[in-house]
Design a protein that fits this description.
This protein has 24 helices and seven strands. The protein has helices spanning about 1-20, 35-45, 55, 65-75, 80-105, 110-120, 140-155, 160-175, 180-190, 200-215, 235-245, 255, 260-275, 280-305, 310-315, 320-340, 345-360, 365-370, 375-390, 400-410, 420-435, 450-460, 475-490, 500-505; strands at about 125, 130, 440-445, 460-465, 510-515, 525, 530-535. A five-stranded mixed sheet has the order 4-3-5-7-6. A two-stranded antiparallel ribbon has the order 1-2. It is globular, with a radius of gyration of 24 Å.
């Protein structure tokens, strides 16, 4: 038995590592780490980013993400990227283990449950709320979601103490991401006859709330408080709809919106197919998590689009549709596997094709309405291989391993661009070595590009304004006003360029542009194949 546990853990670790390094992969400074990294750096060293509005307004009061990262840096001596990546790998393993436990609770044996965990590890894009089942970046939400998956797996197996520990850790990382778990657990408490068994969850809930509140009281470095109560002011509404349109349900394209009712129907159908094979806890939590996710869409619409409650852009309850997708994957696998084992191969192919369509295309219906031959080949090839493998379960583990390579290589799925280039790194090195730490840079013609956030972290220099940083308008009203004024003043970081003196009057010391956009009359202080740096003020004689 011990050898089986070790072998299972090893397979899950292989899935976690291949998922981290190959597909769906991982990134650094390509999404929200562009926000968190300079904030944490400045909390550790207040001399950094002295004029960067983003770094000067950290929004880490309601999470222990920063305290844990700083603590690990002190203990290990590693840099921030390393300690966050290490946590990311650990929590991906926890999330895969949770998927494995859930799959077992759905009536699958060990090989089939490992197959299910591997398929969950392929990840999924959650269009609309703009989140992922396996986030590429090591951010608080990513850690919390994977810990919640671990907690759900433990709950499905009645490992209440383990579920409580994982839910506690998830909550201190990102409280709002754990709302689906706590809501389902509270509902389960009301309907179950075994309430005494749930005391670890009650204790963990109370402890997590107390811990977050305690650390919030002693949080240092905060300069702007997040507002929870009230109506979004008209100007802030304009800014948020411009910068974070995805929060407003009314702006979701139809293809995004209908994905979730259709996946919920798929999930419910699979649940009905395998309900007699599940543990009672799995029967409850898988359906409750998916239904909760669907309910949060109209809830967010009413509270944000209609009532304009200022808390909603910070909470974003519709992110819970993530659990519709997660449960669709696991329940679809269970239904497909049991159908294949019973000889109902066409039915099995249907369930499993949807399962593989989720990581291969994101929008499942789009794969039918706008078919991509290569992706369809991958989806149905993997589904057919699984149908055949159901009679030989031990070989099924190889299918998600193959998918890790087939979906990106043959299916052409590219989850993120190659943002870290040699010229950008050279630009950052030049700025760090040749300019003083209090200088302010602007990427004047980059538009919505993410390069300024990479430069900010690598060069350790302040950025006047950039598109990515504007996402903090969801959280901080004063920051939103500053960002909006600056973004308009620089023409949304697009051409034509303003006179250099105009940038200087804003307090900008250097602008960075593409060489093709460099004014003929202005000599570059630094230039490479991709970037040219111009001083906004003439050098002192």
């Amino acid at each position: 038995m011990k050898q089986q546990y070790l072998a299972t853990a090893l397979v899950l670790l292989v899935f976690a590592l291949l998922g981290f390094f190959v597909f769906p992969g991982h990134t650094w400074l390509q999404s929200d780490t562009q926000i968190y990294a300079p904030m944490i750096d400045r909390l550790m060293d207040p001399a950094l980013f002295p004029k960067d509005e983003l770094a000067l307004r950290p929004h880490v009061t309601w999470t222990l993400y920063d305290e844990i990262a700083i603590g690990l840096r002190h203990i290990t001596g590693l840099d921030l990227q390393a300690v966050l990546a290490g946590q990311q790998i650990v929590f991906r393993f926890v999330g895969l283990a949770g998927a494995f436990l859930l799959a077992q609770a759905l009536g699958l044996g060990v090989p089939a449950a490992l197959f299910a965990a591997g398929c969950f590890g392929l990840g999924a894009t959650i269009n609309g709320p703009a989140v992922l089942t396996l986030e590429y970046e090591p951010v608080p939400r990513a850690f919390a979601i994977l810990l919640v998956m671990g907690a759900l797996g433990c709950a499905a197996q009645r490992y209440w103490r383990a579920a409580a520990v994982l839910a506690f850790v998830a909550t201190i990382y990102h409280p709002t991401s754990t709302a689906p778990f706590w809501a389902c657990a509270a509902l389960y408490f009301l309907v179950t006859k075994s309430r005494r068994d749930l005391w670890p969850l009650a204790a963990a809930c109370a402890a997590s709330v107390a811990t977050v509140l305690l650390f919030a009281i002693f949080q240092h470095g905060s300069t702007e408080r997040q507002v929870w109560f009230g109506i979004i002011p008209p100007q802030l509404e304009v800014i948020q709809k411009f910068r974070a349109r995805y929060n407003w349900i009314r702006f979701w394209p139809a293809s995004w919106f209908w994905q979730y009712p259709l996946l919920l129907l798929f999930t419910a159908g699979a649940w009905l197919r395998v309900r007699t094979r599940m543990t009672p806890e799995a029967r409850f939590f898988t359906l409750a998590a998916a239904v909760y996710g669907m309910v949060m869409v109209p809830v967010q619409y009413v509270l944000l689009d209609v009532e304009k409650w200022v808390l909603m852009p910070q909470f974003q309850p519709a992110r819970a549709v993530l659990f519709i997708t997660a449960m669709a994957i696991l329940l679809g696998i269970a239904a497909g596997w049991h159908a294949a084992a019973a000889g109902r191969r066409l039915e099995a192919l249907g369930w499993l094709a949807v399962v593989f369509a989720i990581p291969a295309n994101g929008l499942v219906v789009q794969l039918i309405t706008q078919p991509d031959p290569k992706r369809l080949t991958v989806v149905f090839g993997l589904a057919a291989a699984t149908v055949l493998a159901a009679s030989r379960p031990r070989i099924a583990v190889a299918i998600p391993l193959a998918a890790i390579f087939l979906i990106p290589d043959f299916g052409g799925v590219q989850n993120y661009p190659a943002l870290h280039t040699v010229p950008l790194r050279a630009l950052s090195d030049w700025a760090r070595s040749s300019t003083s730490p209090d200088k302010i840079f602007l990427f004047a013609d980059i538009g919505h590009g993410l390069q300024p956030g990479v430069f900010r972290n690598d060069a350790k220099r302040s950025i006047y304004v950039d598109w990515k940083g504007g996402g903090q308008a969801n959280l901080l009203e004063n920051f939103a006003d500053v960002w909006w004024r600056r973004w308009q003043a620089v023409h949304e970081a697009s051409g034509p360029l303003r006179p250099l003196a105009d940038y200087g009057s804003m307090g900008i010391d250097y602008i960075v542009v593409r060489p093709a956009n460099k004014p003929v009359s202005a000599p570059a202080l630094y230039e490479n194949s991709d970037w040219a740096v111009l001083a906004t003020q003439p050098a002192a004689p």
